[in-house]
Design a protein that fits this description.
Radius of gyration: 20 Å
Number of helices: 9
Low-confidence stretches: none
Strand order of the largest sheet: 5-4-3-6-13
Largest sheet: 5 strands, mixed
Mean pLDDT: 91
Structural class: alpha/beta
CATH topology of the largest domain: Spore Coat Polysaccharide Biosynthesis Protein SpsA, Chain A
Order of helices and strands: HHEEEHEEHEEHEEEEEEHHEEHH
CATH class of the largest domain: Alpha Beta
Distance between the termini: 54 Å
Number of domains: 2
Shape: globular
Strand content: 15-25%
CATH architecture of the largest domain: Alpha-Beta Complex
């Protein structure tokens, strides 16, 4: 299947090169390499060759955990590929660009069959044997977290400056449990809307950061969240239930198109989102005491 898709992309790339659309051709080449193939141009077209390394893919529960080890980095930046690896690559490169003096571990969990060589050699790549859903995929990466601060990032996010110092400063307050640039609040636990905070009811999963020891107190993400929607709200409430606050930390980042949202048919999107939100309500119905409103 991946070879058939790679060949189709190679044909699209050949057409783009013939039209002298080299930006599109370069983007298609990256997608071909992500599938584990390289395209070699020839006088009569192209050759498609598999990348040499054989990839050993594993179940999320068999990912070796580093959580019992002392932290070896200032930050562990966590990415998940459920498609569109080029988006995550853009994000990885941007977070590397602005690391400065901070030591940063970047973990990429791949649930889309991407070849590990697609990402920089500095990345801790976790190739899964299948896509087990957003929660399980995320937790596979969290097992590899070796940074004092964990930053969960979506592939739609790109850093445009130093994100690390503001996160470190915000989390230096022991009363703060989770921070990020995109916060939301609610008046009734039914509808949430964006808020500049600083204190909010939840941090959206586009980018949420917390100290590594939070995993010991709040646990990991709920693996019954197969779709990403509301998993961030549920986890924020779990952190707040331990007595911590959620704060907005303004960061120099931009959000690009969220591919999973836009590629999912509207009816399916609504069904999955509704199911996830009901799961959130099952646990936190009536817990207005955990909100900024506090009633």
């Amino acid at each position: 299947m991946s070879e058939q898709e790679a060949r189709k992309l190679a044909e699209e790339r050949a057409a783009a090169r013939a039209a002298r659309d080299f930006d599109t051709a370069d983007s298609l080449r990256d997608r071909i390499e992500a599938l584990g193939f390289e395209v070699v141009d020839a006088s009569d077209g192209f050759d498609l060759r598999p990348l040499a390394d054989e990839v050993r893919r594993i179940h999320p529960e068999r990912v070796e955990s580093l959580l019992e080890q002392d932290p070896g980095y200032d930050f562990s930046v966590q990415w998940v590929v459920q498609g569109w690896p080029e988006d995550v690559l853009r994000g990885v490169r941007s977070f590397e660009r602005f690391a400065g003096d901070h030591s940063v571990q970047q973990v990429v969990v791949d649930a889309a069959g991407t070849h590990p060589s697609f990402f920089p050699s500095s990345v801790d790549a976790v190739p899964l044997e299948d896509d087990f859903g957003w929660g399980a995929d995320r937790n596979a990466g969290l097992r590899r977290a070796n940074g004092r601060i964990i930053v969960v990032v979506d592939g739609s996010v790109e850093a445009k400056g130093n994100v690390y110092t503001p996160l470190k400063e915000a989390l230096s307050d022991p009363g703060v449990g989770v921070v990020g640039p995109f916060g939301i609040i609610t008046n009734d636990l039914r509808e949430f809307h964006e808020s500049d905070g600083p204190e909010v009811d939840a941090i959206e999963g586009y980018l949420m950061a917390f100290r590594r020891e939070i995993l010991e107190e709040a646990g990991m993400f709920d693996e019954k969240f197969k779709f990403y929607r509301s998993a961030d709200i549920e986890y924020s409430f779990r952190i707040k239930d331990r007595g911590y606050r959620a704060l907005v930390a303004p960061l120099p980042v931009v959000k690009h198109e969220h591919r999973m949202w836009h590629s999912t048919p509207e009816a399916e999107r609504a069904r999955l989102s509704k199911r996830n939100f009901y799961r959130f309500l099952e646990r936190w119905r009536g817990r207005m005491d955990l909100t900024v409103r506090g009633e």
